[in-house]
Structures are given as structure tokens and as C-alpha cells.
Write a structure and sequence with these properties.
Strand content: 15-25%
Distance between the termini: 36 Å
CATH superfamily of one domain: NAD(P)-binding Rossmann-like Domain
Helix content: 40-55%
Largest sheet: 7 strands, parallel
Strand order of the largest sheet: 3-2-1-4-5-6-11
CATH class of one domain: Alpha Beta
Bound molecules: uridine-diphosphate-N-acetylglucosamine
Order of helices and strands: EHEHEHEHHEHEEHEEEHEEHEHH
Oligomer: single chain
Number of helices: 11
Shape: globular
Radius of gyration: 19 Å
Amino acid sequence: METKGKILVTGGAGYIGSHAVVELFEAGYEPVIVDNFVNSKETALKGIAAITQQEFPCYRIDCTDKQALQDVFRKEQDITGVIHFAAYKAVGESVKEPLKYYHNNVGSLITLLQVMEEFGVNNLVFSSSCTVYGIPDTLPVTEETPVKKANSPYGNTKQICEDILTDLANSGSSQVKTIALRYFNPIGAHSSAQIGELPLGVPNNLVPFITQTAIGIREKLTVFGNDYDTPDGSNIRDYIHVVDLAKAHVVAIDRLIQGKAKAIEMFNIGTGRGNTVLEVVNTFEKVTGQKLNYEIGPRRLGDVPAIYADVTKSTQELGFKTELGLEEALSSAWQWEVNLKNSL
Ligand code: UD1
């Protein structure tokens, strides 16, 4: 079958990675998955197969293992581009175990870049984060909003990775071109409910905590503070449907392959809208008909009071626009949670 090219997806069994694999396939690409399964499960591969009716190659390796990565590039030969999702992402854990985060998140990028150069693979989409903006002085944040000192080792790894990619682009000695996507808050699941977020242990993130509470795994949600300077006092975030986010990667890979990208480009990937935690809770109750047990608790250390994206650059230059809203995202997250329970 003629495809648009083979795309290596590191972390392809993870939450965003699995959705990107599906969207890449549907856009005509041939995904090849790499995952070490420390924060993902084989069931994601089954979900991908159920949706696409395809089995994609999957290599169970760690991206800090240069030899293993070289073997994948050698075996697959004609890789056109790479989407690098593989990374640790728990903010709190990164404070307690910084070396683990620097080694994995920074080490895997450096190793991957070395192997890409060795094999002449020049197109990279990198998973960055709105965390690089820290607590911004103005809202919404544009790509020109200054990067602030990171609040956590996790956030710092994203900044360091962006710096590495920028230095490489400016070196003049590398053919690698990178699009770094600065994600806002991905939520929701595929409409089939075959893939979704699979937190191991107690979820850190808001939406899996909500769905696990509603289904009875957790007793109650704690809303971390209602005394912020926002309309209802709770934090504001830009929640983007994971399927929209996955599609942004396809658009970015298209741009790289078509030779339209500069040596390094950063784009905000969000909806451009901010919602408070309490709005998310209320919308969840409305779209699912579930009553959520929650209480207001103290602020969580390190939380940014409010952040949401200015999406002018990603709309105009990348040509990316979200299509799904908060209601669809929350109802899909709930369908996924229900499906998980039924499949036990
Ligand atoms: C953070 C990082 C993001 C990172 C993500 C990975 C920032 C600005 N963002 O997202 O880059 O990729 O972690 O995990 O650093 N909340 C509750 N109760 C809960 C859980 C969350 O009220 O039980 C609230 C939080 O206070 C926050 C919102 O829900 O206001 C979203 O929290 P979460 O889903 O953890 O994501 P961020 O902290 O925004």
C-alpha cells in the first residue's frame, strides 16, 4: 500500500501518542511505535488495532538506549519523520526525583537526535508544554510570551529540550528541522472509547480524577483552591480535546515533509479558551448526568493561577484549528471510563 511515509512515534502507546497513531494512519501515514511501557499498557495497542483494523510495528525499547534505537532505524530503513512523545510528565514526582526526569526527558531527546542525524531522518515534532511560560504576566500567552524560570524539574526538561533544539537549528550543521508543539491541557478520549488516558495509580490530572470519582474508584475530588483571582476563584486552563491535539501532529508532520517549516518553530496548541476547574466540574455533571462528589481544598503547590493560549500563530501559520469542545471532551472521557470498567 502506498503511504505518505513512515513516521516513528516514540511513546506511541501513551495517552497522546496512541491518539496520534490513529490520526496519522487515517491521514495516510504509516506509524511505527516505540514505547518502553513504563507509563502505558499493551491494551493501548489493542485499542489502536480495534479502531484502525491494522497492526503497526511496535518496538519495546527505551529511547535513552542508543543501540536499540539504531536497530529500529536500521530495521525500518525509510523513516520519514519522528514524533517524540516519550517522556515522564508528573510534575510532583519530578520534584522528588529530578535525575530520573533529566535523564529520561533530556537524555532521550539527545539520543534520538543523534540517531536521526546518523540515519539522515530530518523531520521532528517535539512534545513541548505550556509549562514553559511559567506564571505568565499577560494572557492569553503567545509564542512570544517570555519563557519563565521553570516551576519544576519536569517543566525545566521541556525548556532544556526546546533550547537543545534551538541550538541545533542555529548550529547550521544539522539538517534536522523541528516543530515543537506547546500543548495546553489535553483531555478526553477517542470517540470509539477504545483508547484514552490510562493513569497508573492515583491520577494527578483533573479529568481522570473526575471520571474515577464519578465511577466510584475515588471518593471525592478536591478542587485545589477557590481563592484565586479568577471569576469563580478556581484555576483557569485551556483544555484541548486529545483528538484535536493528535491532529495537530499530523498537520505539523505534513508541514515538515512538504518542506514548509523553518529549522525550528514553536506553536501553541490549545483552544484559545480558558475554563475554570469549577466550570469543568459543572460541565462534566451536565453532559454526563453524573453528580460529582467534590470539595474545595487548599491550593496545590506550584499551580499556575491562569493560563490559556493565543492560537493566532498556530491558526495562521500551521493551519491548525480545534474542532471539538469541552463538552465533547468530557463526555468522551466519561465513555472511556465506563468502557474501562466494563472491560474489567
Ligand atoms: C501540569 C502542567 C503541564 C503538564 C501536566 C502533566 C503547568 C502549567 N502545567 O498541568 O505542563 O503537562 O501538568 O501532568 O505546569 N486540579 C484539581 N484537583 C485535582 C487535580 C487537578 O483541582 O485533583 C486542578 C489543578 O489545580 C489545575 C487543573 O485542575 O488548576 C488542571 O490540573 P492538571 O490536570 O494536574 O494539569 P496542570 O497542572 O494544569
